[in-house]
Amino acid sequence: MPTLNWKPGDVAFLKRAETFDDAEQKELLDSRRLFPGATGHPVIVLDCSNNSWYYIVTTVSAYSSSEENNYLPPWQQLAHIHKDINGFRAFSGSRRPNENYEFLRLADKKQWPKPETSWIYIHHPYLVPASTLIRYTKARGQQLRMEPNSLKDLLRHTERQCRKFRRLQAELRQKNNRYPPTEKNFQQSGHDYGHCVPRIEYSNTIAEKTWCPTKSHISMPSATVTLVDITNNSNSSNSNNSNNATAEKTPYRMPTR
Fold first, then answer.
1. Torsion region of 57: left, alpha or beta (phi above 0 gives left; psi -120 to 50 gives alpha)
2. Could you say which residues of the chain have pLDDT below 70?
């Protein structure tokens, strides 16, 4: 379960591939949706699912540029010479490939730890689960984020020129309703559950459900949602049982894909 809710423009850190768990390894690396070289970098959050389970990100990289090679930009390096030169975007302090686009900027006039070597390649966005994103710790404890107008500029450029980004956005929309409902979903459904939060309990029984377009039947697991009143949690320190909490069970129809 993710503990951080990132917003578009936030700077996060994409975990190194060797720290991925089995599910992340299968979903991202084994499927070749993400290559190990793209991990272990700070990333800009470009978009997110409604439930904050998935994010579209793009990496910020030095592309092996340093003082040793006179801060050689990626479009002049043999390894990247075939890339679209107009796809590179430079943060303030780094060299631009041309004057077609403005420098990208961080909010509050902040700088990257390597201001001379901070580039984005717009054709390399990635759709990743929230569990692969952690805090970027090289900013001296500060949460970096893009300046809002600069983010809009980057998004316009990416949406216009990158087919992969548009495809990932469509895929992201499909993921919005794929997970069990949250408290927000229950309140939006027209039912007022106050301070109750949903807890999903799955059973081993199978329920029949009618699939409207064909009037056929499919089998799917049945589930019960337990709504637990959390308003009195602070007063329950003297008791280890759950008799002080009010629970109500109501049937819940699982969403179809």
1. beta
2. 1-3, 177-257
